[in-house]
Amino acid sequence: MTTRLTPDGLRRIADEFSRSHSPGRVRGLLIAGSGLTLEVPGWEVGEVVAMGDLLPFPIRSLAGHDHTLTVWRRGVDSLLVMNGRFHLYQGYAQEEVVAPVRLAALLGAEVLIATNATGSLDPEVEAGSLVVVSDHLNLQGSNPLAGVWGPELGPQFPDMTEAYDPELRELAHRAAAAAGFTVHEGVYAAVLGPSFETPAEVRMLRQLGGAVVGMSTVPEVIAARHMGMRVLVLSLASNPAAGINQYPLSHEEVLAAGHEAADRLRDLVRRLVAVIFPES
Ligand code: HPA
Q: Is the pTM of this model over 0.90?
Protein backbone atom coordinates (compact mmCIF):
# COMPACT_ATOMS: atom_id res chain seq x y z
CA MET A 1 0.00 0.00 0.00
CA THR A 2 1.39 3.41 -0.93
CA THR A 3 -0.90 5.60 1.22
CA ARG A 4 1.00 7.14 4.12
CA LEU A 5 -0.48 7.67 7.55
CA THR A 6 -0.93 11.43 7.31
CA PRO A 7 -4.15 13.43 7.80
CA ASP A 8 -4.67 13.47 4.01
CA GLY A 9 -3.74 9.80 3.71
CA LEU A 10 -6.32 8.93 6.34
CA ARG A 11 -8.96 10.98 4.53
CA ARG A 12 -8.21 8.98 1.38
CA ILE A 13 -8.51 5.71 3.35
CA ALA A 14 -11.90 6.90 4.68
CA ASP A 15 -13.07 7.76 1.13
CA GLU A 16 -11.91 4.38 -0.14
CA PHE A 17 -13.66 2.62 2.78
CA SER A 18 -16.91 4.48 1.96
CA ARG A 19 -16.64 3.50 -1.71
CA SER A 20 -15.92 -0.18 -1.08
CA HIS A 21 -18.22 -0.79 1.90
CA SER A 22 -21.02 1.79 1.56
CA PRO A 23 -21.43 1.95 5.35
CA GLY A 24 -24.36 4.40 5.15
CA ARG A 25 -24.75 6.45 8.32
CA VAL A 26 -21.85 5.39 10.60
CA ARG A 27 -23.21 5.87 14.12
CA GLY A 28 -20.31 4.79 16.28
CA LEU A 29 -17.16 2.79 16.91
CA LEU A 30 -16.92 -0.02 19.46
CA ILE A 31 -13.47 -1.16 20.57
CA ALA A 32 -13.06 -4.49 22.34
CA GLY A 33 -10.14 -4.85 24.75
CA SER A 34 -8.00 -7.82 25.82
CA GLY A 35 -9.86 -11.08 25.40
CA LEU A 36 -13.26 -9.41 25.05
CA THR A 37 -15.38 -10.15 22.01
CA LEU A 38 -18.34 -7.91 21.39
CA GLU A 39 -21.59 -8.80 19.70
CA VAL A 40 -24.31 -6.38 18.77
CA PRO A 41 -27.63 -8.20 18.42
CA GLY A 42 -30.21 -6.36 16.34
CA TRP A 43 -27.45 -5.40 13.97
CA GLU A 44 -26.50 -7.64 11.06
CA VAL A 45 -22.90 -8.67 10.71
CA GLY A 46 -21.48 -7.32 7.50
CA GLU A 47 -17.93 -7.39 6.25
CA VAL A 48 -15.01 -8.26 8.47
CA VAL A 49 -12.08 -6.18 7.29
CA ALA A 50 -8.53 -7.09 8.35
CA MET A 51 -6.85 -4.05 9.86
CA GLY A 52 -3.77 -4.89 7.83
CA ASP A 53 -5.78 -4.41 4.60
CA LEU A 54 -7.14 -1.08 5.80
CA LEU A 55 -4.27 0.74 7.44
CA PRO A 56 -0.85 1.52 5.98
CA PHE A 57 1.39 0.04 8.66
CA PRO A 58 2.40 -3.50 9.66
CA ILE A 59 0.11 -5.15 12.22
CA ARG A 60 1.81 -7.11 15.00
CA SER A 61 -0.35 -9.75 16.64
CA LEU A 62 -0.83 -10.32 20.38
CA ALA A 63 -2.66 -13.12 22.24
CA GLY A 64 -6.34 -12.18 22.62
CA HIS A 65 -6.28 -9.55 19.88
CA ASP A 66 -7.73 -10.21 16.41
CA HIS A 67 -7.26 -6.88 14.68
CA THR A 68 -10.35 -6.73 12.54
CA LEU A 69 -12.93 -4.08 11.87
CA THR A 70 -16.43 -5.47 11.42
CA VAL A 71 -19.22 -3.45 9.85
CA TRP A 72 -22.55 -4.07 11.56
CA ARG A 73 -25.64 -2.83 9.74
CA ARG A 74 -29.21 -1.93 10.63
CA GLY A 75 -31.06 -0.33 7.73
CA VAL A 76 -29.09 2.75 6.68
CA ASP A 77 -27.12 2.76 9.92
CA SER A 78 -23.83 1.06 10.61
CA LEU A 79 -21.60 0.48 13.60
CA LEU A 80 -17.90 -0.25 13.30
CA VAL A 81 -16.73 -2.92 15.73
CA MET A 82 -13.00 -3.18 16.25
CA ASN A 83 -11.63 -6.40 17.69
CA GLY A 84 -8.21 -5.95 19.16
CA ARG A 85 -6.44 -2.64 19.47
CA PHE A 86 -2.97 -1.23 18.98
CA HIS A 87 -0.87 -0.47 22.05
CA LEU A 88 1.97 1.99 22.48
CA TYR A 89 3.89 -0.72 24.35
CA GLN A 90 3.96 -2.85 21.19
CA GLY A 91 5.94 -0.10 19.53
CA TYR A 92 3.06 1.40 17.56
CA ALA A 93 3.26 5.17 17.11
CA GLN A 94 0.52 7.35 18.58
CA GLU A 95 -0.94 8.06 15.12
CA GLU A 96 -1.09 4.30 14.45
CA VAL A 97 -2.80 3.56 17.79
CA VAL A 98 -5.54 6.10 17.12
CA ALA A 99 -5.89 5.59 13.34
CA PRO A 100 -9.08 3.47 13.64
CA VAL A 101 -10.73 6.12 15.84
CA ARG A 102 -9.84 8.91 13.44
CA LEU A 103 -11.04 6.80 10.52
CA ALA A 104 -14.37 6.22 12.29
CA ALA A 105 -14.67 9.95 13.04
CA LEU A 106 -13.93 10.84 9.40
CA LEU A 107 -16.69 8.38 8.41
CA GLY A 108 -19.12 10.28 10.66
CA ALA A 109 -19.10 8.22 13.89
CA GLU A 110 -20.34 10.33 16.78
CA VAL A 111 -19.78 7.93 19.67
CA LEU A 112 -16.85 5.81 20.82
CA ILE A 113 -17.55 2.94 23.20
CA ALA A 114 -14.34 1.24 24.36
CA THR A 115 -13.75 -1.66 26.70
CA ASN A 116 -10.46 -2.61 28.28
CA ALA A 117 -8.85 -4.78 30.93
CA THR A 118 -7.28 -3.10 33.94
CA GLY A 119 -5.70 -3.74 37.29
CA SER A 120 -7.69 -2.50 40.25
CA LEU A 121 -6.01 0.11 42.45
CA ASP A 122 -8.95 0.30 44.82
CA PRO A 123 -9.57 -2.57 47.27
CA GLU A 124 -13.32 -1.96 46.86
CA VAL A 125 -13.10 -2.70 43.13
CA GLU A 126 -12.75 -6.47 43.25
CA ALA A 127 -11.29 -8.54 40.41
CA GLY A 128 -14.08 -9.24 37.94
CA SER A 129 -15.90 -5.93 38.57
CA LEU A 130 -16.84 -3.48 35.87
CA VAL A 131 -15.87 0.18 36.13
CA VAL A 132 -17.39 3.08 34.21
CA VAL A 133 -14.43 5.38 33.56
CA SER A 134 -15.12 8.94 34.72
CA ASP A 135 -11.76 10.55 33.88
CA HIS A 136 -8.15 9.63 33.19
CA LEU A 137 -4.55 10.27 34.18
CA ASN A 138 -2.36 10.23 31.07
CA LEU A 139 0.96 8.90 32.38
CA GLN A 140 2.02 7.36 29.06
CA GLY A 141 4.42 10.17 28.28
CA SER A 142 2.94 11.20 24.94
CA ASN A 143 -0.21 12.48 23.28
CA PRO A 144 -1.72 11.62 19.88
CA LEU A 145 -2.30 15.30 19.11
CA ALA A 146 1.38 16.24 19.27
CA GLY A 147 2.72 17.11 15.84
CA VAL A 148 0.72 17.75 12.69
CA TRP A 149 -2.42 15.88 13.70
CA GLY A 150 -3.71 18.32 16.31
CA PRO A 151 -4.28 21.40 14.16
CA GLU A 152 -5.20 19.34 11.04
CA LEU A 153 -8.17 17.39 12.35
CA GLY A 154 -9.59 19.52 15.16
CA PRO A 155 -8.71 22.17 17.72
CA GLN A 156 -5.06 22.24 18.78
CA PHE A 157 -5.96 22.49 22.47
CA PRO A 158 -9.18 20.50 22.93
CA ASP A 159 -11.01 20.75 26.23
CA MET A 160 -10.99 17.53 28.26
CA THR A 161 -13.26 18.61 31.12
CA GLU A 162 -15.97 16.11 30.29
CA ALA A 163 -13.98 13.72 28.15
CA TYR A 164 -16.06 10.81 29.48
CA ASP A 165 -19.60 11.80 28.58
CA PRO A 166 -21.69 12.23 31.76
CA GLU A 167 -24.92 11.24 30.00
CA LEU A 168 -23.41 8.03 28.57
CA ARG A 169 -21.97 7.19 32.00
CA GLU A 170 -25.41 7.61 33.54
CA LEU A 171 -26.88 5.35 30.86
CA ALA A 172 -24.23 2.73 31.72
CA HIS A 173 -25.20 2.78 35.40
CA ARG A 174 -28.89 2.48 34.52
CA ALA A 175 -28.28 -0.34 32.04
CA ALA A 176 -26.23 -2.24 34.64
CA ALA A 177 -28.95 -1.76 37.26
CA ALA A 178 -31.54 -3.05 34.79
CA ALA A 179 -29.33 -6.09 34.16
CA GLY A 180 -29.10 -6.70 37.91
CA PHE A 181 -25.49 -5.84 38.66
CA THR A 182 -23.67 -2.78 39.96
CA VAL A 183 -20.78 -1.08 38.30
CA HIS A 184 -18.15 1.11 39.92
CA GLU A 185 -17.08 4.46 38.57
CA GLY A 186 -13.57 5.89 38.70
CA VAL A 187 -10.41 7.29 37.17
CA TYR A 188 -8.34 5.26 34.68
CA ALA A 189 -4.60 5.71 35.17
CA ALA A 190 -2.86 5.04 31.85
CA VAL A 191 0.73 3.81 31.90
CA LEU A 192 2.92 2.75 28.99
CA GLY A 193 3.63 -0.84 30.08
CA PRO A 194 4.28 -3.55 29.09
CA SER A 195 5.76 -4.43 32.47
CA PHE A 196 3.09 -4.40 35.15
CA GLU A 197 3.46 -1.71 37.80
CA THR A 198 5.64 -2.10 40.85
CA PRO A 199 3.88 -2.01 44.24
CA ALA A 200 5.38 1.49 44.79
CA GLU A 201 3.90 2.67 41.47
CA VAL A 202 0.55 1.20 42.44
CA ARG A 203 0.61 3.17 45.72
CA MET A 204 1.49 6.32 43.76
CA LEU A 205 -1.34 5.82 41.23
CA ARG A 206 -3.79 5.22 44.05
CA GLN A 207 -2.66 8.44 45.76
CA LEU A 208 -3.10 10.31 42.49
CA GLY A 209 -6.74 9.28 42.48
CA GLY A 210 -6.71 6.30 40.11
CA ALA A 211 -9.29 3.56 40.58
CA VAL A 212 -7.86 1.29 37.86
CA VAL A 213 -4.63 1.11 35.88
CA GLY A 214 -4.21 0.07 32.26
CA MET A 215 -1.94 0.34 29.24
CA SER A 216 -4.38 1.46 26.54
CA THR A 217 -7.46 3.55 25.65
CA VAL A 218 -6.30 7.04 26.62
CA PRO A 219 -4.82 7.81 23.17
CA GLU A 220 -8.08 6.71 21.55
CA VAL A 221 -10.13 8.85 23.95
CA ILE A 222 -8.02 11.94 23.30
CA ALA A 223 -8.26 11.43 19.53
CA ALA A 224 -12.01 10.85 19.73
CA ARG A 225 -12.64 13.99 21.82
CA HIS A 226 -10.39 15.98 19.50
CA MET A 227 -12.71 15.09 16.62
CA GLY A 228 -15.87 15.73 18.62
CA MET A 229 -16.94 12.18 19.42
CA ARG A 230 -18.73 11.38 22.68
CA VAL A 231 -16.89 8.75 24.69
CA LEU A 232 -17.87 5.90 27.00
CA VAL A 233 -15.21 3.60 28.45
CA LEU A 234 -15.99 0.42 30.39
CA SER A 235 -13.11 -1.21 32.25
CA LEU A 236 -13.03 -4.74 33.44
CA ALA A 237 -10.90 -4.91 36.58
CA SER A 238 -9.31 -8.26 35.79
CA ASN A 239 -6.84 -8.39 38.69
CA PRO A 240 -5.82 -6.49 41.80
CA ALA A 241 -2.85 -4.29 40.77
CA ALA A 242 0.61 -5.36 41.99
CA GLY A 243 1.14 -5.34 45.73
CA ILE A 244 -2.59 -5.24 46.55
CA ASN A 245 -2.35 -8.96 47.15
CA GLN A 246 0.78 -11.07 47.36
CA TYR A 247 0.56 -12.87 44.00
CA PRO A 248 2.58 -11.96 40.90
CA LEU A 249 0.58 -10.83 37.82
CA SER A 250 0.39 -12.61 34.47
CA HIS A 251 -1.15 -11.86 31.06
CA GLU A 252 -2.91 -15.26 31.24
CA GLU A 253 -4.64 -14.21 34.49
CA VAL A 254 -5.82 -11.01 32.81
CA LEU A 255 -7.25 -12.98 29.85
CA ALA A 256 -8.91 -15.59 32.12
CA ALA A 257 -10.69 -12.95 34.22
CA GLY A 258 -11.74 -11.30 30.96
CA HIS A 259 -13.45 -14.51 29.85
CA GLU A 260 -15.25 -14.92 33.19
CA ALA A 261 -16.65 -11.40 33.34
CA ALA A 262 -17.17 -11.13 29.59
CA ASP A 263 -20.82 -12.20 29.83
CA ARG A 264 -21.69 -9.28 32.08
CA LEU A 265 -19.73 -6.86 29.94
CA ARG A 266 -21.35 -8.16 26.74
CA ASP A 267 -24.78 -7.86 28.34
CA LEU A 268 -24.01 -4.28 29.35
CA VAL A 269 -22.69 -3.31 25.92
CA ARG A 270 -25.71 -4.89 24.23
CA ARG A 271 -28.11 -2.91 26.40
CA LEU A 272 -26.11 0.27 25.90
CA VAL A 273 -26.00 -0.05 22.13
CA ALA A 274 -29.79 -0.35 22.16
CA VAL A 275 -30.26 2.89 24.13
CA ILE A 276 -27.39 4.92 22.66
CA PHE A 277 -28.28 4.12 19.04
CA PRO A 278 -32.08 3.89 18.95
CA GLU A 279 -33.65 3.14 15.61
CA SER A 280 -34.75 6.37 13.94
N1 HPA B 1 -1.78 -3.12 35.20
C2 HPA B 1 -1.79 -2.53 33.99
N3 HPA B 1 -2.56 -2.93 32.99
C4 HPA B 1 -3.36 -3.99 33.22
C5 HPA B 1 -3.39 -4.66 34.44
C6 HPA B 1 -2.55 -4.20 35.50
O7 HPA B 1 -2.53 -4.74 36.61
N8 HPA B 1 -4.30 -5.66 34.33
C9 HPA B 1 -4.80 -5.59 33.07
N10 HPA B 1 -4.24 -4.58 32.39
A: yes
